[in-house]
Design brief:
The complex is a heterotrimer of chains A (269), B (224) and C (263). Chain A is mainly alpha-helical. Helices cover 80% and strands 0% of the residues of chain A. Chain A is flat and about 70 Å long. The two termini of chain A are 35 Å apart. Chain B has helices spanning 2-33, 36-51, 54-75, 85-111, 114-122, 127-157, 169-180, 183-212. In chain B, helix 1 (2-33) runs antiparallel to helix 6. Mean pLDDT of chain B is 86; it is low at 218-224. Chain C has a five-stranded mixed β-sheet. In chain C, strands 9-8-10-7-11 form a five-stranded mixed β-sheet, with helices on both faces. A two-stranded antiparallel sheet of chain C has the order 2-3. In chain C, strand 2 and strand 3 (47-48) form a beta hairpin. In chain C, helix 2 packs across helix 10 (224-240). Residues 1-5 and 7-21 of chain C have low confidence and may be disordered. Classes of the chains: A mainly alpha (269), B mainly alpha (224), C alpha/beta (263). Chains in contact: A-B, A-C, B-C. At the A-B interface, helix 2, helix 4, helix 5, helix 9 and helix 11 of A face helix 2, helix 3, helix 6, helix 7 and helix 8 of B.
């Protein structure tokens, strides 16, 4: 019985969504896609398919690593700005201001080319155990993207920590919880929950920032599409396909975050 | 050279922000009061722009945009127009900014107390007068925080034009750094310039926000 | 027949050029990056160098109003297609791959391709010598294509937006070697940064299929008029000594290479 009710509402919803003008619009969109598929050049795809898969993998890897590391950095950054001593709060705030006040592209180039230009002055760097990593491009890409995410998300976490009702923390203290335990059991979970909607937005923005690493010789999906453009002199098709790839990843991200939000009960604690 | 780059950056940011604002006003009104087709098309526009990296959009619009315009001119029998890097840069970033400001302004219009608009309608104002006299002025205080954020994004997004070779601040820095090999110093200096622009903007915008908020009840939670 | 048509086109072009009150505008695309001694920028931001002077000489010869238009390197060929620019004169080698998309004038210079690397390492510009090395090249150049074809046993081939950045990473030690035009690399080796870190490893083995017969001006395939004008201009400055005069300012040898190759 209840299944039937659900069915009816779903059907109504679909019908409500599929108004006549939408059907026309979808038909036009499909026609454009078909035209693009027929009249544009796609014969290069098989040659670059494997490279593209590797590029997509690299992009997603970079996104996940920098978001996870960046979030781990953002929590203390937000926390010390709300409750920390001044000698921690001021540097944290300065860090967030600098990251948010300058373009990521510039930060990336400063780290990669700027630091690189300093290497010849310090020959011992080449003997150090870090050298095999310093030689490659990806550590700089990961570092720049992580710091950037931490800067933006640190600001969000600051607001989230400050937004948790005082009463909650006082109640926890009345239970005799230690400061560490309050943070772990009450404060952090509630702040994270508050930050979750912006977290989704910030992560999509982070995805949109990843193609910048192509300028420091990292081979992500953006750089694969540039390579196709340069080797075949086909201009639009690789870019259109690239836009489609990013839209798909964005859609998946939004979907995953919605699932995550739905899993967490509306009234935590 | 850095200064010339800075001027270019600021011109583009201001141009893109201004045109983006116009697109945003039109878009917000279209989304709220437009017909079903307009609303769906605007939804597609804002979703697309917000899901695709700015860098990809810039490349697509920079090459495809000028190509399309020239083909259109060709079809209409006009000679191809010469689109300068400056104009193309402003145009591309304006389209990106327009999508974001559509959303900001839509939220701001929705935040206007409904009674004000109804009162205007009761006075027999035409929709155009209503928009000019009531809706636009009344939404400003609600829109300013979001728009301030967009302005800061605009100044930073101009750096992306370096990748299409436009000589704004980041590209000028890159050239100067390449010529002198002092990469670290120059990139650091450019970072300082961007930071100054951001901080100055923040001061000015905060003042503007306070001005427009005069006489309004303070929002719960915004007081410290 | 073709020659007659081409001649006719030139005549028409010249007549039009002479008839018009002002010379027609030709937008010359170049990538805004230092590539000394062919391209360099002074403190005020204006461009000079051997290739700039050659462009100006050719344009003056043909009474073309040439405007230098900056476009990033990898956007040059697309920009030619979309009429953002009318010709590419930016040390672009004439290759079969590029000729599928655009047309070229006759060559106006041709210099050998070389490899440079860190002073501390001893190796040759051969596939064996570069085995296991990290090589940096500029994207979508003949050098990138050559390295990918011949130095297959290199540890990695890194592609940079500009040759400047590849040189920079060579001094930083992130790459072991870079391959590019020998003259451009020579200019880098003579700079302070280049002197300190690197030396010449030698010329690469010739491969005309990839490296092409030399550098020419890229034009649209349907723009035979401009191509003929540029060819006439190149020939004229070769004949009247202007080419030699400019070259003497920058080099102590003739960069034109072997005579008699036309395109």
């Amino acid at each position: 019985m209840s299944a039937l009710v659900v069915n009816v509402t779903t059907r109504q919803r679909v019908l409500g969504w599929l108004q006549p003008h939408r059907i026309v619009l979808i038909a036009i969109a499909l026609a454009i896609v078909v035209c693009a598929a027929v009249f544009m050049r796609w014969d290069w795809i098989p040659n670059y398919a494997w490279l593209a898969v590797q590029g997509i993998w690299r992009t997603i890897w970079l996104l996940v690593v920098s978001v996870v590391l960046g979030f781990m950095l953002a929590v203390p950054l937000g926390l010390v700005q709300v409750t920390g001593p001044i000698w921690l709060a001021v540097p944290a705030r300065t860090f967030c201001t600098i990251i948010r006040g300058t373009p990521l592209l510039l930060q990336l180039w400063l780290l990669y080319f700027g630091l690189g230009a300093l290497f010849p002055q310090f020959p011992w760097i080449r003997e150090s155990f870090l050298w095999p990593y310093l030689r490659q491009a990806w550590p700089y890409g990961v570092l720049a993207l992580t710091l950037s995410y931490a800067g933006y998300e640190g600001e969000v976490m600051r607001g989230a920590f400050a937004g948790v009702p005082r009463g909650q923390l006082e109640a926890a203290r009345a239970f005799g919880m230690s400061r560490w335990k309050i943070l772990r059991r009450v404060w952090l979970p509630q702040a994270t929950y508050r930050a979750l909607p912006t977290l989704a937005g910030e992560t999509v923005l982070q995805l949109k920032a990843t193609p910048l690493v192509a300028t420091i010789t990292m081979v992500d999906i953006f750089s694969v599409s540039s390579r196709v453009r340069q080797e075949t002199f086909i201009v639009y098709e690789p870019l259109l396909l690239l836009a489609l790839v990013y839209m798909t990843i964005t859609a998946i991200l939004v979907f995953l975050f919605r699932k995550l939000e739905a899993r967490i009960p509306a009234r935590p604690g | 050279m850095l200064l010339r780059g800075l001027v270019n950056s600021l011109i583009i940011a201001a141009g893109a922000f201004g045109i983006g604002l116009l697109i945003g006003i039109a878009g917000a009104f279209g989304k709220l009061y437009g017909g079903p087709v307009t609303r769906d098309l605007l939804e597609v526009y804002t979703t697309l722009v917000r899901a695709v990296p700015e860098l990809v959009l810039i490349l697509l619009l920079y090459y495809a945009g000028t190509d399309l315009i020239n083909r259109l001119m060709d079809m209409l029998g006009y000679p191809p127009v010469d689109i300068s890097g400056l104009a193309a840069g402003i145009g591309v970033l304006a389209i990106v900014q327009g999508a974001y400001s559509t959303e900001v302004l839509r939220g701001a219009i929705l935040a206007i107390p409904q009674g004000q608009i109804e009162a205007g309608r009761a006075y027999g104002m035409s929709p155009w007068t209503l928009m000019r006299r009531i809706t636009l002025p009344a939404m400003v205080p609600f829109a300013i925080p979001g728009l301030a954020n967009l302005w800061l994004i605009a100044t930073k997004d101009t750096a992306l034009l370096a990748i299409v070779g436009f000589s704004e601040l980041t590209q000028a820095t890159r050239q100067a750094a390449g010529a002198t090999k002092a990469y670290f110093t120059f990139f650091l200096a450019a970072g300082g310039i961007y930071l100054v622009v951001t901080l100055l903007s923040q001061v000015i915008l905060a003042r503007a926000e306070r001005r427009t908020r005069r006489g309004m009840p303070s929002f719960a939670g915004s007081g410290r | 027949m073709k020659k007659l048509l081409a001649g006719l086109a030139v005549a028409v072009g010249l007549a039009l050029g002479a008839g018009a009150a002002q010379a027609e505008q030709v937008k010359i695309g170049f990538s805004p990056e230092a590539y000394p001694p062919f391209w360099s920028q002074d403190a005020s931001g204006s461009w000079g160098g051997w290739e700039v002077e050659i462009i100006n000489a050719i344009c003056a010869e043909q009474k073309l109003d040439c405007v230098l238009t900056p476009i990033p390197w990898d956007g040059l060929i697309p920009a030619l297609g979309t009429k953002k620019i009318d010709a590419i004169m930016n040390s672009m080698s004439i290759t079969d791959e590029r000729k599928k998309t655009i047309d070229f004038s006759d060559k106006y210079y041709n210099t050998p391709t070389a490899v440079i690397g860190s002073k501390d390492a001893k190796f040759d510009a051969t596939p064996e010598g570069l085995k296991g090395k990290i090589i940096g090249v500029q994207v979508s150049t003949v050098h990138a294509a050559y390295a990918k074809k011949h130095f297959t046993e290199a540890a990695e081939i890194k592609e940079y937006q500009t040759q400047d950045e590849a040189n920079q990473d060579l001094t930083a030690g992130r790459i072991d070697a870079t391959q590019a035009d020998s003259i451009a690399l020579d200019a880098f080796l003579k700079s302070d940064a280049g002197k300190a870190c690197c030396d010449m490893k030698g010329y690469v083995a010739p491969d005309d299929e990839v490296l092409g017969p030399g550098v020419g001006a890229g034009v649209r395939k349907d723009d035979a008029a401009l191509k003929d004008k540029l060819n006439a201009g190149i020939k004229a400055i070769r004949d009247n000594g202007k080419y030699a005069e400019i070259t003497k300012k920058y080099f102590d040898f003739d960069v034109y290479g072997a005579e008699g190759q036309t395109n």
